[in-house]
């Protein structure tokens, strides 16, 4: 299993729990404007090699989630802005063009230092 | 005193909300581009037509009250709600509709989406 995207969580906004309650994690890379930081998880990207596709895995610390759907602008967001809307809604068709969907599961706890990666088997 | 002109912005194909009229002022001159890869062409066009100042939100930040309009390339969850929440008029270049935890703040008076260059017209 190889990781084609790797990052580490550096900051967690005050409103992140409201998004987690709706089964969403919103990530942004370094350089995101101040006003976005309240509701997003900031991460520092250490490796980006390839776009994510359906069937890849999102790995958060020791938890793995298979990617079921990838919206049309999700890769553009991730590559340009380090931005990802991860939704635990079980959808195999994304509702929104920025969505990356995984099964409807309870999302793991996110802390500063949590590792995030996207892997392919 | 700069000489500002108003523009009328309509939704594009499959878009939502608006139309918005954008008129920068000396207190709120910024056409605030919160998009990947620098000032988006839509923000550049609005700046050109209005006389407002194109500003890259990923390079530096500005207070909300300085923003005449925010231009985003949001896929529908996060940025789409942040600027409307602060009552800042927002143009999304993607054809999205209100969704996500911030959907309650998004109104047709504050957001227009799916906007293409042709949807931006000077007001006579």
Features:
heterodimer, A: 121 residues, mainly beta, M1 Pyruvate Kinase, Domain 3, nine-stranded mixed sheet, globular, B: 124 residues, alpha/beta, five-stranded parallel sheet, 2 helices
Count the helices of chain B. How many? 2
The rounded distance between the terminal residues' Cα atoms of chain B is: 20 Å
**Which percent range fits the helix content of chain A?**
10-25%
Number of domain modules of chain B: 1
How large a portion of the residues of chain A is in β-strands, by DSSP E?
35-45%
CATH superfamily of chain A: Phosphotransferase system, glucitol/sorbitol-specific IIA component
So what's the oligomer here? heterodimer
Poorly predicted spans of chain A: none
Using only C-alpha atoms, the radius of gyration of chain B works out to: 13 Å
Mean pLDDT of chain A: 93
N-to-C order of helices and strands of chain A: EHEEEEEHEEE
Number of strands of chain A: 9
Shape of chain B: globular
Strand segment count of chain B: 8
Largest interface: A-B, 31 and 24 residues
Helix-strand category of chain B: alpha/beta
> How much of the polypeptide of chain B forms β-strand, as a percent range?
15-25%
H/E element sequence of chain B? EEEHEEHEEE
